[in-house]
Amino acid sequence: MRIFVFLLMTLSLVLAAKEKYTTKYDNVDVDRILANDRILNNYIKCMLDEGPCTAEGRELKKTLPDALANGCNKCNERQRSTTEKVFKHLTTKRPRDWDRLSKKFDPQGNYKKKYEEKFGRTI
Fold first, then answer.
1. Which stretches of 1-123 are DSSP H helices?
2. What gap in Å lies between CA 58 and CA 51, rounded to an integer?
3. I need a labelling partner for 49 at 20 to 30 A (CA). Which of 7, 14, 74, 100 fits?
4. CA–CA gap between residue 106 and residue 95 (Å, rounded)
5. At 26, which CATH number?
6. Which pLDDT score, from 0 to 100, does residue 7 have?
7. What are the contacts of 25-34 at 24+ separation with CB within 8 A?
8. What dihedral angle (degrees, nearest 10) is formed by the CA atoms of 104, 106, 108, 111?
9. Sign of the four-CA dihedral 18, 74, 63, 105
């Protein structure tokens, strides 16, 4: 019986871990990316299928639709704060790029209202 309980607990931990996004890129220096137009432009081109992607860009492009649809519920705290930082930067300093990304990843505006309420302002 103990072995069964142990296996059940181990299985539930494995399944719970699969419910989160990878933490492999959590230590990427997002502030450096946002401060460097050349690097940020490359990430934006990646996301818009207009240029090559780094490994981080490919992972972001893969997980972004799910994260938007599910309110980043598979994100850890660092990923949530990074997401908010990027949203704020793009909406205030790069609104044209924000519009292009929004058209690709939220063409019907389904998520826009949810995130406007979350961040307390129009995005």
1. 2-18, 30-35, 37-47, 55-69, 77-93, 95-105, 112-119
2. 11
3. 74
4. 15
5. 1.10.2080.10
6. 44
7. 25/55, 25/56, 25/59, 25/60, 26/76, 26/78, 26/79, 26/82, 28/56, 30/82, 30/85, 30/86, 31/85, 34/85, 34/86, 34/89
8. -170
9. positive
pLDDT at residue number 15: 42
Query: One-letter amino acid identity for 104?
Result: K
Question: What is the reported pTM?
Answer: 0.76
Total domain count for the chain?
1
Cα 93 to Cα 35, 104, 109, distances in angstroms:
11, 19, 20
pLDDT tens-place values along the chain, 123 residues long? 445 444 445 444 444 445 889 999 899 999 999 999 999 999 999 999 999 999 999 999 999 999 888 888 999 999 999 998 998 999 899 999 999 999 999 998 887 777 667 666 555
